[in-house]
Structures are given as C-alpha cells and as structure tokens.
Write a structure and sequence with these properties.
With 393 residues, the protein is α+β, with helices and mostly antiparallel strands. It has helices spanning 189-192, 204-214, 240-249, 263-273, 283-299, 323-337, 349-353, 376-384; strands at residues 7-14, 35-42, 47-55, 63-65, 67-72, 85-86, 95-97, 102-104, 108-112, 117-124, 133-134, 141-145, 161-163, 166-167, 169-177, 182-187, 220-225, 254-260, 303-307, 345-347, 354-355, 358-362. The two termini are 28 Å apart.
C-alpha cells in the first residue's frame, strides 16, 4: 500500500482477553478443532485502511490458522460476499501464531467508518487447545464444523454453535488522520458492558462515542473493559496495574485513559469464601493502587480520568456486598471527588445511577436485575455523566 505521511495507525476496536487457565472459572471455556469461527466487531472510528490483531497470548500450543477473511456483516452469521476479502499476515493466508504472541495483519485497503460491523472468519483446521478469549463481548459469535471460510452464511450447517465469548481477536486499527485522539476505557464490567443488551451496542463506551460524534468530535473511545477484573489482584485477567501498559498505554493513538476499578477488589473475596467472611483491601490499599495508575498514565504523557465506584449494595451475588466493602467504596469515591485525587478529572458514576433514597444501591430504573450491573438506561446515564470537555478528543 502507499505510505501516507498524513495518516497514522490508530486503534478503532479493542477487546481485552483473559486466560482460560485461571482458577476462577466464571465463563464458558472453549477450544476448536476443524472449525470455522465467525465473529463480528463494530468499529469505534474510521480510516482509509484496516488491520486486524489476533492473539495466542494464553495458548499452550501454537495456533494454526488456515485462513482469515474479513467481510461486512449482514445479519446473524451472514456476510456480504461482495465485500469478502482474505486477511494476510506477513503475506500469508495460512499462518501460525506462536505461544504467547500476538500478530498484526497486513493492511486491508478501503475506507471504513465508525459503526461499521465487520465479520472476521477464521478457519481452524487443527486442535487449538483452550483459547485466549474475551469474556463478555456482547456480540454473538458462531462456530461451525468444517471449512466454511467463504460461506455467505453459516446458518443450516449441522453442528452450528452460537458463542457468547469472543476468541483470539484483540483489536483492529485503522489508518486515520495523523493526530487523531482517542481514549481507552480501561476498567471492569462497567466498561465491558455486562448487564446491557447483547448485539445492540449499548455499553458505556458505545454511548459515550455517540455523544462525542454528536458533538462533532473527530476522536473516539475504545473499550478495554474486562468483567470481574481487579485493580490489585489477578483473576479474572491480570490485575489493572499489570495490564495497564499493554491494554492502555501502548494502544496506538491513545491520549486519554478512563478508569473504573475497585468493585471486584471489594466484592470477589467475600463471594469466593461465602458464607465465611474474607479480608478485603483497605481504603489506603485502593488509593495507593489508583494513585499508581494515575501516575503511570501521566508519566506516559496521557490524561487520566477516574470514574467513581458504582453502587452495589444488595447485589444478588452472595457474599459480594458487605457493609465493610460498601464503606470503603464510599471513602474511595469521596477521595476521587476531592482535591487530593491525582486524576485530571472524574465522572461520577455512583451519583449517576444511585438510588437517591439509598445511594449505596443502584436505582431500580438503572439496575440490570442483579444489583451489580447497569442496564441500557444505566449505561446511558453513565455516558451522560462524562463532561466531554475533559476528553478533548
């Protein structure tokens, strides 16, 4: 392709991944053997070309991919065959991703825009072992036996499966105007979107992007939320301080990082040991971790925006909500709102979705039903709580 000095590779889609070999098993683990895997991504921004990122970060065997094709999605497992094109890696259509590594594809030329739904189809001829995966992508994927790499649809294939998890895809970059500014939503399930309606793009970052576009912004937000992720402790996924460099600071084009952490640090210990109690991080522990995040974001020359810890009293998950944990969350939020916070700004998630009569719990209108995650209306309230002037995208 022709090099354009006025353009730069910029993240237009991200999907944080976890290991299938963790001791906490909340999600369906999966491997493949002689399968066609078809998964859709929705771009947060556009450009004149695109490249795909595939990962075997947590695989225990080399990942052999017999072919990869990209096409525009129609509906369900269907694609627009006229847009179907091979995706090559170092010039090859048949390639292998070594254990622990990620590959970036050769550029696929042609304009793409924010909101485009693109389907990546992978032919996996050999046994993969358990896959590197995204836990709650809220995008239905498909796995079918045999090689259906270029099929217009997988519907009707015997043994077709719908997948709630996403496998191997960690991102897509676009060739965008140089200087395009983007934010990374780096956090837990409140960013990934647990509780919102699948296949409708009602997650907090999606709705914040709608606001940015309506305001005429040329930048956008990519989603690196990871459900059940913690600030200080591994599982689910590497803890925030361990994955910050890879999942936020190294994202091409990033100028701003939004963070939401603390809920799972306070809730998962008690959930794991229920009905027995469990020690939780202190306010000082979490402040130290959040300060370290802010300091590292600033050291990279980026703007750091915090979000207050969402309310979670009365969640249905036994042992997750404790009076001690709720009290710490309240103290963390007071600190984030105060003058001692090291962040450049904050969005008050807690206030945006709290029940005014009991601010430690989610308002019924915003509750997904589990008392821990917001629904579509709640995600909109979160997006509306962000002062766009703090993003300058």
């Amino acid at each position: 392709m022709t090099t354009d000095s006025t353009a730069a590779w910029t993240a237009a889609f991200r999907s944080a991944v976890v290991s299938p070999y963790e001791s906490i098993d909340l999600f369906g683990l999966r491997g493949f053997d002689g399968h066609t895997l078809r998964q859709t991504i929705r771009l947060d921004g556009g450009g004149t070309a695109l490249r795909i990122r595939l990962s075997n970060r947590y695989g225990k065997e080399p990942l052999h991919i017999g072919g990869a094709h990209l096409a525009r999605r129609t509906e369900g497992s269907g694609i627009d065959s006229g847009s179907d094109t091979p995706v090559r890696f170092a010039g090859a259509e048949d390639f292998t991703i070594p254990v622990g590594e990620e590959l970036v594809s050769d550029p696929v030329d042609g304009p793409v825009t924010a909101g485009d739904e693109l389907t990546l189809t992978l032919w996996l001829p050999d046994e993969t072992g358990l896959s590197t995966y995204s836990a709650v992508p809220l995008r239905t994927g498909y796995a079918a036996p045999g090689n259906a790499l270029t099929a217009d649809t997988l519907d009707g294939i015997e043994g077709l499966e719908e997948l709630a998890t996403r496998h191997y895809i960690t991102g897509a970059d676009v060739l965008a105007p140089a200087g395009t500014r983007i934010a990374v939503a780096f956090g837990d399930s409140w960013f990934e979107g647990t509780g919102t309606t699948a296949d409708t793009d009602q997650r907090f970052p999606d709705l914040l992007n709608n606001r940015l576009r309506d305001a005429g912004s040329t930048g956008w937000v990519v989603n690196q939320g990871l459900s059940a992720n913690r600030l200080l402790t591994d599982e689910i996924g590497e803890h925030a301080l361990a994955r910050l460099q890879r999942d936020a600071l190294d994202v091409p084009g990033v100028t701003h990082v939004l963070i939401h952490f603390g809920l799972n640090d306070l809730g998962i210990p008690g959930q794991e040991t229920y009905p027995e109690p469990a020690p939780i991080p202190t306010t000082a522990d979490l402040i130290a971790g959040l300060t370290a995040l802010a300091d590292r974001i600033h050291a990279a020359g980026l703007t750091a925006t915090a979000t207050t810890v969402g309310p979670y009293k009365d969640t249905i998950y036994e042992g997750y909500s404790t009076p001690e944990g709720v009290a710490v969350a309240r103290e963390i939020n007071d600190w984030l709102r105060g003058t001692d916070s090291p962040f450049d700004s904050y969005a008050d998630f807690a206030a945006a979705v709290a029940d005014p009569a009991d601010p430690d719990r989610i308002h019924d209108d915003y509750d997904s039903g589990d008392g821990l995650h917001v629904n579509d209306a709640g995600a909109k309230a979160l997006a509306d709580s962000v002062d766009l002037a703090t993003l300058t995208l």
